[in-house]
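User: What would this chain look like folded?
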Amino acid sequence: MHVSDQRSNRLFVVLAGFFLTNALLAEFVGVKIFSLEATLGISPIEWSLLGVSGTLNFTAGVLLWPVVFVMTDVINEYYGVKGVRLVSWVAVGFIAYAFLVAYVSIGLAPAGFWVEANQSLGVPDIQHAYAQVFGQGLWTIIGSIVAFLVGQLVDITVFRKIRAVTGEKLIWLRATGSTAVSQFIDSFVVLYIAFVLGPQKWSIPQFFAVGTVNYLYKILAAIALIPLLYLARRLIKSYLGHDETERLKAAAHRA
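Assistant: Here's the prediction, encoded as structure tokens.
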């Protein structure tokens, strides 16, 4: 195998691994709801939309999903639609497998000394706590997996169409534009499946209000991560060299 092929293959493994790791982490840490204002040490920011009001509370997963979509654009740039589709489907399989393993582990009978040791640490029921953290509801799991896959496929398509118009220029535009569309779908699909169709039965105004606030946060985060996209391009070019970088991009977007 040629040295340049080895480097491009290694790069794909690294990018795919980082993509998969962030997607899995986002699913599991997303069970925590955090206050953005309290985290930043500022007063609560009250918002009101469609008769629904609240403060800036988000799942911890929103910290990582913008990174996932940036990685989607990087892989798309150098390995094309086939590369992104491959890692997206693999991610869906890994996420489903991870949730299955989590549910199996919850069903295991806890060791008595483990329960007692955690009671002495101030956790009265570690088995219940474990189940609460890792045992996300079925509707939430279905919603997150469907939203992730649909969002990825949309991101791929929009990125490719914008690139067809802009060519090599304006990578920030195709990255942000594709993320804006895919995150919009992702934000609302997961909430609709998990909280409208699911047992909580959110009202439509609540669904649209919370979805809009979440979407705006994700877009701002995606814009803030644009420098990361350019940094990734520079590092990749430094690693592969100019000729191999151009060859990869040309092959990735060949009709």
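The radius of gyration is 21 Å. If you want, I can go into more detail on any region.
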